Amino acid sequence: FGGVPRLLVPDNLRSAVSKANRYEPRLNESYQKLANHYQTAVMPARPYKPKDKAKAENAVLLVERWIMMRLRHQTFYTFKELNLAIRELMNDLNEREMKHYGASRKALFDKLDKPALKPLPKQRYLYTE
User: Fold this and answer.
1) Residue 100 domain-assigned?
2) Residue 4 and residue 87: Cα distance in Å, rounded?
3) Three-class SS state of 44
4) Domain enclosing residue 26, as ranges
5) How far apart are CA 43 and CA 30, in angstroms?
6) So what's the pLDDT on residue 93?
7) What domain of life does the native source organism fall in (predicted)?
8) What is the pLDDT of residue 56?
9) How does pLDDT run across 96-111, given as a tens digit for each residue?
10) Which pLDDT score is estimated for 118?
11) In degrees rounded to 5, what are phi and psi of residue 118?
């Protein structure tokens, strides 16, 4: 996306959160290192509170309906083929105008979200154990 968000709101999956807690969640050490490298804050969603991430939940539903349904009868022999097909459909979806907003997802991202991203650090994060 060309930048770093100021805040990440992950689910309470084990790879991100070691101990879920409404007030003081404990992040997985490697996830915390990733956040530190990119100088971003992490605030996990509250357990069993889907409204904390309603837009993400709706995006998953949209992908399931709009993309997976179009690919369900196709056969892919490599991940590269599958990823290419998904990318093409994602680009189509992101370019489609949303009636309620009068703009596409891409246009709204470029206008609202992209300017709010912090610059990426010069070096990529390297995962180590």
Assistant:
1) yes
2) 21
3) coil
4) 1-48
5) 15
6) 94
7) Bacteria
8) 82
9) 999 999 999 999 999 9
10) 97
11) -80, 155
41 and 86 inside one domain: no
> Does a structural domain hold residue 72?
yes
Whole-prediction pTM: 0.76
**Residue 42 phi/psi, 5° resolution?**
-125, 125
The two tokens of residue 97 are 């105008």
Nearest to 56 by CA among 19, 89, 21, 13: 13
Q: What is the domain count for the chain?
A: 2
pLDDT of amino acid 105 = 94
For residues 39 and 62, membership in a common domain is answered with no
pLDDT of residue 1: 86
Q: What one-character-per-residue DSSP string does 58-105 give?
A: HHHHHHIIIIIHHHTT---SSHHHHHHHHHHHHHHHHHSEETTTTEEH
Tell me the longest C-alpha to C-alpha distance in the chain. 47
Count of all residues that appear for the chain in the document:
129
Residues 56 and 109 in one domain: yes
Q: Which residues of the chain have pLDDT under 50?
A: none
Whether 56 and 112 share a structural domain: yes
